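re: ur msg from earlier - yeah i can do the magnesium ion complex, just paste it... oh wait u already did. ok heres what im feeding in:
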Amino acid sequence: MAIQRFKALEYAQNRPTVAVNFPSDKVSEYYGINTFNDRVMRATLSAEVYKQVSQAIRQGMTISADAADAVAAAMKSWAIGKGVTHYTHWFQPLTGATAEKHDAFFDVDSKGDVIEKFKGSALVQQEPDASSFPSGGLRTTFEARGYTAWDPSSPAFIMENGNSKTLCIPTIFVSYTGEALDYKTPLLRALHILDKAATQVCQMFDREVKQVIATLGPEQEYFLVDKALYYARPDLVLAGRTVFGHEPAKGQQLEDHYFGSIPARVRAFMADFEQECVKLSIPVRTRHNEVAPSQFECAPTFEEVNLAVDHNLLLMDVMRKVASKHHFEVLFHEKPFAGINGSGKHNNWSMGTDTGVNLLGPSTKPKENLQFLTFFINTIKAVHTYSALLRASIASAGNDYRLGANEAPPAIVSVFIGSQLMEVLKELEENASIKVEKGENLYIKLGIDKVPPVLLDNTDRNRTSPFAFTGNKFEFRAAGSSLNCASPMTILNTIVAEQLFKFKEEVDKESESESKKEVAIVNVLRRYVKEAKNVLFEGDNYSEDWVKEAERRGLPNVKSTPLALDALISEEALELFERLGVLNHSEMHGRHEILLEHFIKNYRLNPE
Ligand code: ADP
Ligand code: MG
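and the outut:
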């Protein structure tokens, strides 16, 4: 073992930096060249077909068979023109990884001639032999048919792997009877229901709003290890983490790695995977060293949630492939090394209107700030009511090692909002029986004018909080680095949707006795602040005191995955997800079972 390690060190030290060739000096010249994006569709589809596809993308409308044929034909010529030979339906089964099964474009006809073909029907739906994917008892093997169906809202893309190029078509994956067997189906349903609920609430303020789009910017943390050193450690290879050995004398005590200069080999790797991402329209923007030695982070600009989720999965895939070219292994495990930080995937989340307003962005206008407070407080209320579900949404064997360890938020879900907004909420709560007289400025009287448009502690934020407000978005930090963001995003958007429906109902009721709508809104919000303020915590989430304090407040602290997952099959959760049309009872039970199985198998690989 020691000899192998010395050899590996020698290899690692002598590796030259792999040169990176860019298609052009300007990113704008190759951004998105590997995606069948809006620009390509506009150029290759007839006006009528283009209109149908755009509507399908924006409003989830279905596409006629003729239009699908036209899209398939355009996709095929575009892809073949770029040297693509195969196509695949790309989907997200509950294994946690993405799946693809490649089919060649060429076919042999009855005369033995070879033709290139790709019909609309092959674009829209496929039936992969899916019996080996987990279904959690939703399908028995003899009726193991599963279908993949095109998701037009996420553009098809070309995956390059050495000399081979494949056209990948993002799809959902459902059973013969229509039950969701993947991550994308419930996510799309949740985003749809959030849009419905949030639009209703927006219309209280602005009747022009017709659609609300949830947005996500996932920050991806990871470790890099030289291939030779990686293969010298069977535990890393098999479990994705080290399970024996001693801690190094110099870990992260000096915290001198954070934002430090990036080593040349690593920089080359980053530049290389970033250019591959850019070609796929993944807007990677930020790169830096993280706190632990050999730990790094990459963050894209936020996008619509479904797209951001696909892009994050693709990013991870691209990173693995490019890492190999640079003789690195990239570790997405949540806690590969004891004694130093683990890796997370902060889910920055907000909601925006089709009129261009970020609903979690405070503004200088009091009227908009009442809307801001509405979405802000409703989110806090949803987190308070359904914190067990949020905890379940990020539960995994790997994350169990991370939560509550070095620099990771604990398993207690609390919300950090910063001292200024704490003041605003306090005032709102205390101004109990406000009477607004004629001629008085309603917003000043209600205290809404106190919302600071720029938050002072935006930069000085609490890094220890699992769910933090960071100026114009919430950041769900408890998510682990290997997780499919669809899991927390499905749950978060569903619970916020539920909360917004309730809010609308309560404001309508309150309006019966209160002539001013704004006062009715504030009355309901005030009640929410009272009911949910227990979940607000500004202090150090890593401290022992907080664990005790949280217990006193009655906040759950579920330390292990199997217990956390119970929340998915609580009566309350089953009823909620079925009523909102996100996941029915059997889909929830199926998921619960798969996640448990996943945990058990992983746990065996990851002994304490
Ligand atoms: P930090 O590491 O300080 O938290 P980063 O700049 O690394 O900040 O990441 C912030 C992330 O939040 C980026 O992906 C950014 O695009 C995203 N973000 C910004 N505004 C929004 C928004 N309205 N909705 C969702 N994500 C957002
Ligand atoms: Mg962050």
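cool cool. Residues 215-217, 219, 286, 299-302, 346, 348-350, 358, 472-473 surround adenosine-5'-diphosphate (ligand 1) (CB under 6 Å). ping me if u need the other ligands too
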